[in-house]
UniProtKB/TrEMBL annotation:
InterPro entries: ARM-type_fold (IPR016024), DNA_pol_V/MYBBP1A (IPR007015). It is found in: Nucleus. It comes from Bos taurus (Bovine). The gene is MYBBP1A. This is MYB binding protein 1a. The keyword Repeat does not apply. One of its GO terms (molecular function) is DNA binding.
Length: 1311
């Protein structure tokens, strides 16, 4: 293969030589030799998008690989990339550097020395101007980085030495490059082999300790040499003790500098970690940590330095032994870290806790084989406390990496710290604000112990709650027994049979701590119950955890000498406990049944609650046991028992009352248990049991209760709303001082409003009486004109006492009134919360028993709840939650359910009455959303009624025959309801309502009238009367066709025309004879208006649809759509075209110059045009000079479209008066015409709505008309002249259609 002619870029010629030789100036950069695609690569490389840069670089490399070696493209690419290293855009320099590195990595035959030489020549620091010094410096720096990133620099010693020298030269320009050259030098030297490093080290490192400690880069280079070539370093600098006392200030300064440099990157500098490793290597870690880190960096009070210390601590964890871990976790640094965790609470503050969690998690995961170090670290972080409260959260997730041994040791440490708190072993601290406002009486050791014990018990529960923690079954049981024992029992005499009795307290448990432990225990119980539901066999014997806890409680009760419950059981309560255990044993035999398992779970939980509330739980246990026995032995007892007590309520009602009482407790666990048990008994639910649930949601009773809370005064309503908001948001704003101050100010404002608003007339009268009495006492000796004279001292004192007592009484009355309001408001909130919980039972019922007839009883109560909540203006959270949950259950689980009740039975009449009531209520609602809920309920009842009539089996053949006979005469079901509703819908078509209501009425009629089931419900006269009424209403609404100015009005016109077309189809299908004269007149009167609006472009989105529907209706009436309709649509577009667009040739059409022109004189054309009206009359025969082929075509043509230019058929004679048609004479609905009818039959018959075989011919003629005109006028020019003559047939298309067809045949032959 021959080499390219020119391998190098052509040099430009001198101006004189160019003029002498006549040659054009040379292509200086060789751009003319390269394609546009190749040049675009370099533009894409400099773009900010990373994907675009990488893709352009890959394409450039593929392009260059396809070229031969030493091609001009390669030389241009190298020159272009080297030029881009020092470009003006700073963001493009790294892009070109990376592209150059990949290019050098792909083409290893390119020598690095030549590339480095080209870089230095292009960005020569000696020749560059002062203004271009900065780009040249960065060009050299990025060039060296490109060589290093290619991976070939460390292998080329010559290029490596030159690069090192260049970086040293660049290091002198600190103002522009700062420490970047030194960092690049350290990165390069860290990758070179030891032999090369020994050769380069004397040239880059000065044998001076002051120089080494002068900058982080020099120190990092020293540490690199110390790590890789320590012998060469010692020979160069001699023995160096870096960790001496005199070097501490300089080390701290260097570390502070490097901490400030990585402030934005938030990473650990390499020099700090190398110093730590060197200290560990030389056994000087304690000195380094204490002197440099804690006494040096921390004393600077500089947050970047503190974050450097935190990162250094996290990175050092895997490198430290157990003793060293204890050293670093007991010092000032870890206390400083705790202060940071406590104070960094604001959203915008930087929080180091997530980063430290990553360090700790990585350490624990990496040393799972060393449980001692794991335990030491976790205990150390737990020991960081703020006045007794550990700073790490109770849900600290790093414990999931603990090994089982370490986790067991950690739980044991937590229990020991709970029993015997050792505050001295903790790293406790107080923040600056706490020190300023510290009260020794409040911040005592008792408070610290309480805070510590509270955290520990929650930490134990969260360990069991965390599913990711690998824990043994014995550990779970140990934590559960620990919490249960210390919640409800105390030790009298230790015994080995109860390990918990051998646990001693250094400080006794107070009542607050026991309440916390009790709450934590029931939270743990909820977790164990949830896990039991997900994994039933989580214990070895397959029993739930609650069963083991009940057995443990029975053991504790039997050892009354050793332990005693905090609240002693009475004889009745102990008997209830024993009966519960007996019932549990009976349920074990029926454990295969799901209902027995649910009852067992309920018994266990209520039995455990016996220790918390003995009196209430004792009664519940007795009722539950009775219900269980009746429910499980219901069938056998019915056969054996001779008589039952009629006054005794069924067991399901008693159990429902028990579940409601459990839901009244603020326990999420009880809420879950109630749902679970109710799901198993809802199949046995009775109407009375359901009514017990609905009584809680009964809006009437709730409204009566709400009337007691309603306050007429506006200020009092505002006070109640503020109390609601404050009670709901109080927990969230507990930690913010700003929000607390705002709440206090709001409370002050509300107090002032209460003072102003609560001044009643009685207080005013008392105040006036006191003032008048004081005036009488002091004004006895005063004159009448001296009203402003001051009172005496005694009178003034007496008046002050009277006023003080009066205002004190008023203040007490106001406070009592306010307390009463708050009490009622809290009761209302609790009542709403209870109703929300009761909705769980209704949700379970409609989900698990959707086909139960009792579900139908839920419609109206749920609608009443929705209506009441929508009408209330309360913005309380409970009210909104109640509304949302009720609406969700009603809509998704009830109305939209696929399964519903199909056996109405004897409730059909009741359901019809309920359906009528719901429809009436829907029409009376002021809110459309509430009306929609009632409408959905009505549809649901229609589904039920339809399902009950369709799916109801006929048991006897006679009933089947009778039902089939009566089906056509008297149908039953939703069709009859639809029949009774149709007149109402018809009236709404033209009623004075909103346009959208009229649209809905039209749509309903359009959907229902064609149905066959509805037609069966009507007799023929009734059906014809209904059709006539509907047609009249539609005709009335069409009188305003085309006048709509709004979107809703336009939709009304569309719906009316669609309904009219539906009626026409119905007339044709059933062969009804209707009077269509009025409809035709109304439609023809609106034609001109519709055409004008279409030309003006109004409502362009739906005007074409409206026009199509209009002509579809006119087609049913026998009036065909004229050709001019399409021409008028195209004419404005043709006139608005620009001259440039007119010159363009249409695809598929010949230009005007290529068309064949007929050589006719102009007079002949005018005579032919004048002869057209004569041919319209039909007296003259068609011309005989036409070809036979045209005659055959004319015989096939049957469409009157040519003569109907104005939407009306042509008449036989030009008489000005139309034939009289009596309005009483009904115009028959046109019938369809078969395609095989002959021309004579067509002329004699009435116009037909379906003439599809003729339309294509008319369209072809319509398209050919503009091409035949020689005068250049539009084919619409004949429209004004013919309009007057053709207007005769406007009112009677059915009588004059035949004449129109004859006229068109003759016209077509003439064409």
């Amino acid at each position: 293969m021959a080499e390219p002619a020119s391998m190098e870029v052509t040099e430009p010629l001198a101006p004189g030589e160019a003029q002498k030789s006549g040659v054009r100036p040379a292509d200086r950069h060789g751009l003319l030799k390269h394609s546009r695609e190749f040049l675009d690569f370099f533009w894409d490389i400099a773009k900010p998008q990373q994907e675009t840069r990488l893709e352009a670089t890959e394409k450039l490399l593929e392009y260059l690989r396809a070229k031969p070696k030493g091609s001009s493209e390669m030389k241009y690419a190298l020159k272009r990339l080297i030029t881009g290293l020092g470009g003006g855009r700073e963001a493009a320099r790294p892009c070109y550097s990376l592209a150059l590195a990949q290019l050098l990595q792909s083409f290893e035959d390119i020598p690095l020395g030549s590339i480095l030489q080209q870089i230095q020549e292009k960005h020569d620091l000696q020749k560059v101007k002062k203004g271009m010094m900065r780009p040249a410096l960065f060009g050299n720096l990025f060039g060296v980085l490109a060589l290093f990133q290619s991976g070939r620099l460390v292998k080329d010693s010559e290029a490596l030495m030159k690069s090192v020298k260049l970086l040293q030269a660049l290091g002198q320009h600190y103002n522009h490059l700062q420490e970047q050259p030194q960092k690049a030098l350290v990165d390069i030297l860290s990758q070179v082999p030891e032999a090369a490093l020994q050769e380069i080290l004397p040239k880059v490192l000065k044998p001076d300790l002051n120089s080494v400690l002068g900058s982080p880069e020099h120190l990092e280079l020293f540490l690199l040499a110390q790590q890789k070539v320590p012998e060469k370093l010692e020979k160069l600098m001699g023995p160096v003790n870096l960790f001496s006392d005199e070097n501490i200030p300089r080390l701290v300064t260097v570390l502070k500098t490097v901490a400030n440099s990585v402030k934005k990157e938030r990473k650990l500098p390499t020099v700090a970690l190398d110093l730590l490793r060197l200290a560990l290597q030389e056994d000087k870690f304690p000195w380094f940590w204490k002197e440099v880190v804690e006494q040096g960096l921390l004393k600077k009070q500089f947050w970047p330095a503190s974050y450097l210390c935190f990162r250094l601590l996290g990175a050092a964890l895997p490198l430290l032994s157990k003793e060293q871990l204890q050293l670093v976790m007991q010092g000032d640094l870890i206390r400083h870290y705790g202060e940071h965790m406590v104070t960094a609470k604001l959203p915008k503050q930087f929080k180091f806790a997530p980063e430290m969690n990553e360090y700790v998690g990585a350490f624990l995961e990496g040393c799972r084989g060393d449980p001692e170090r794991q335990l030491a670290l976790v205990v150390a972080f737990t020991s960081i406390t703020n006045q007794g409260l550990p700073v790490v959260p109770t849900f600290w997730r790093v414990v999931q990496f603990l090994s089982p041994t370490a986790l067991k040791g950690y739980v044991a440490w937590l229990q020991d710290m709970f029993l015997q708190p050792d505050l001295d072993s903790l790293v406790d601290f107080s923040t600056n604000n706490q020190k300023k406002t510290q009260d020794t009486s409040f911040h005592g050791p008792e408070r610290a112990v309480f805070r510590l014990r509270k955290w520990i018990i929650l930490r134990l529960v969260s360990i069991v709650d965390n599913l990711h923690v690998e824990k043994e079954e014995a550990l779970i049981e140990e934590v559960a027994r620990f919490c249960f024992f210390h919640s409800f029992f105390e030790t009298k005499k230790p015994t080995s049979q109860i390990p918990e009795s051998e646990q001693h307290f250094t400080l006794p448990l107070d009542g607050r701590t026991r309440e916390v432990v009790c709450g934590a225990f029931f939270s743990l119980l909820q977790t164990l119950s949830t896990q039991f539901r997900l994994a039933p066999e989580q214990t070895a014997d397959g029993r739930p955890w609650t069963y083991h806890l009940v057995q443990f409680a029975d053991v504790l009760l039997n050892h009354s000498r050793n332990v005693a419950p905090l609240t002693a059981f009475t004889t009745q309560q102990r008997q209830a406990w024993d009966r519960m255990l007996k019932t549990l044993k009976e349920l074990d035999t029926l454990s295969s049944e799901a209902k027995a398992t649910a009852f067992q779970h309920l018994l266990l939980l209520v039995g455990i609650h016996l220790f918390k509330s003995p009196a209430e739980s004792c009664d519940l246990l007795g009722d539950i046991q009775t219900c269980i026995k009746k429910s499980l032995g219901e069938k056998t007892r019915r056969t054996r028992s001779k008589a039952t007590n009629p006054q005794e309520p069924p067991w399901v009602e008693v159990l429902v009352e028990i579940l409601l009482s459990l839901l009244a407790q603020p326990s999420h666990l009880m809420r879950q248990v109630a749902r679970s048990v109710f799901g198993h008994i809802c199949a046995h639910l009775t109407l009375r049991a359901l009514q017990l649930i609905l009584d809680v949601l009964n809006p009437e009773e709730s409204q009566d209760e709400d009337d007691n809370v309603v306050v007429t005064d506006d200020s009092e309503e505002q006070l109640l709303g503020g109390a609601e908001d404050k009670s709901s948001d109080g927990e969230d704003s507990k930690g913010s001082k700003v929000s607390e101050s705002e709440e206090e100010s709001d409370d002050d404002d509300s107090d002032e409003e209460d003072r102003d608003g609560d001044v009643d007339q009685g207080f005013r009268e008392q105040l006036m009486a006191v003032l008048q009495a004081g005036k009488a006492l002091g004004g006895a000796d005063s004159e009448d004109d001296n009203d402003d004279e001051e009172l005496g001292d005694e009178a003034m004192m007496a008046l002050d006492k009277s006023l003080a007592s009066l205002f004190a009484e008023q203040k007490l009355r106001i406070q009592a009134r306010k307390d009463e309001k708050n009490k009622l408001q809290k009761e209302k909130a609790l009542r709403r919360d209870f109703q929300i919980r009761v909705l769980d039972l209704i949700e379970v019922l409609v989900t698990k028993q959707p086909e139960n007839p009792l579900v139908l009883e839920l419609l109206e109560p749920l609608l009443l709840v929705i209506r009441r909540s929508m009408r209330s203006n309360s913005s309380a959270k409970q009210e909104q939650d109640l509304l949302h949950k009720t609406a969700r259950i009603f809509t998704h689980h009830l109305c939209r359910s696929r399964h519903y009740c199909r056996t109405a039975g004897d409730r059909v009449e009741t359901l019809y009455a309920r359906l009528e009531r719901l429809v009436q209520q829907a029409g009376q609602q002021a809110d459309s959303s509430v009306a929609l809920y009632h409408f959905n309920a009505s549809l649901y009842l229609l589904r039920v009624l339809r399902g009950s009539t369709v799916d109801k089996p006929a048991r006897k053949a006679q009933k089947k025959e009778k039902a089939s006979k009566d089906a056509s005469s008297q149908p039953q079901g939703p069709e009859m309801l639809c029949k009774s509703l149709l007149p109402i819908v018809v009236e709404h078509v033209t009623s004075h309502t909103r346009p959208r209501h009229q649209v809905q009425a039209c749509l309903l009629l359009q959907k229902t009238l064609p149905t066959r089931e509805l037609r069966v419900c009507f007799k023929d006269p009734e059906w014809k009367q209904l059709m006539g009424q509907t047609l009249g209403k539609v005709t009335e609404i069409l009188r305003t066709l085309g006048e709509a100015e709004t979107k809703s009005g336009h939709q009304k016109d569309l719906a009316a025309l669609e309904l009219l077309n539906t009626l026409f189809r119905n007339f044709h299908h059933e062969k009804l004879t209707m009077d269509l004269t009025a409809v035709l007149g109304v439609l023809q009167s609106q034609q001109l208006r519709l055409q004008q609006r279409l030309q003006q472009g109004e409502h362009s989105a739906g005007s074409s649809r409206l026009h199509d529907l209009y002509w579809q209706a006119m087609k049913f009436l026998g009036v065909q759509r004229p050709k001019s309709e399409k021409d008028t649509k195209e004419a404005p577009q043709a006139t608005q075209q620009s001259p440039v667009s007119m010159k363009r040739k249409k695809k598929g059409f010949l230009p005007e110059t290529k068309k064949r022109k007929k050589h006719k004189p102009e007079a002949t054309t005018q005579e032919a045009a004048a002869a057209k009206p004569e041919a319209t009359s039909g007296d003259q025969p068609p011309s005989a000079g036409k070809k036979k082929k045209k005659k055959k075509k004319m015989k096939k043509t049957k469409s009157p479209a040519l003569s109907q230019m104005n939407g009306t058929p042509a008449a036989k004679s030009p008489t000005p008066e139309p034939p009289a048609v009596s309005p009483s004479t009904p115009t028959k609905t046109p019938k369809p015409q078969k395609k095989t009818q002959k021309l004579a039959q067509v002329n004699e018959a009435t116009p037909l709505p379906h003439q599809s075989p003729e339309e294509p011919v008319a369209k072809k003629r319509q398209k050919k008309l503009p091409q035949k005109g020689v005068s250049g006028k539009s084919p619409q020019s004949a429209l004004p002249r013919k309009k007057a003559r053709l207007s005769l047939a406007i009112r009677s298309p059915s009588l004059l259609q035949s004449g129109a067809k004859k006229v068109q045949l003759r016209k077509a032959k003439k064409l």
